[in-house]
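Please review the protein record below. Tell me whether the encoded fold seems credible here:
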Amino acid sequence: MHNQLYIIWDASKDIFTIPGINWPVRWYGLLFACAFLGSQFIMSKVFKIEQRPPKYLDILTIYIVAGTVLGARLGHCLFYQPEVYFKHPLDILKIWEGGLASHGGAIGIILAIWLYCKRTGESLMWLFDRITLVVPFSGMLIRIGNLMNHEIVGLPTNVSWGFKFMRNDEDLAELALDGVAIPARHPSQLYEAAFCLFLFLLMLYLWKTRRHVLPPGFMFGLFCVLLFTQRFIGEFFKEVQVSWENKIDFNMGQNLSIPFIIFGAFLMFSSYRKQKRLQKNTE
């Protein structure tokens, strides 16, 4: 009989519990905070090298943090469980109960940057191109946080690198009720974290070596195409977030990725065409 290989994943979701108030400090929260702190550090280097006013960096950070959290929360509520939150709208504020959508976060970041540029007069495309450095960096840390949280698990698999998520409530319920062994699953969090690392390194390389020659908006367009193409493909390896997604050809994450891919391709084409037109006019 073939013995399936797999990885037992039994890491605790908590780092420690604060004595007296019994409040757990979780890996996900720490990694989420590190994503913002690391992003601010990266952008501080960008602002310094490209001689942007450093006083605006704190304002930008506030805008992006607010846009990310509000967008991700509202995105989850509106995209995945609108019937629940329309009946109980105050539950939208219960962010500690979980429920953040990355597509909503992406929309929130775009709106936050637009508002920031209106306030400061910064070039919208310049900032969009630079934000491609920090978004994949943050995404990598957040997906590792999802791994520590035993959430956003992949579909059952027989591959040797499959993970058995020993603290996944759904699987444990199956085991308790039916005596069914916990299945090994694709570590979809690690797939996305690894791709985010690749995307971060690619964007860092383009910024360091090609930012003076690439047309404004090209890096952001390429970023959108690559990130959301991966997201579209990656959804084939993941469990759906809500049961009604099983009734549609593509799940919500895939349907939401398509407009971003189209937008990114359009931005790449239009920015390149605009640069060619300007070069022709100056000849």
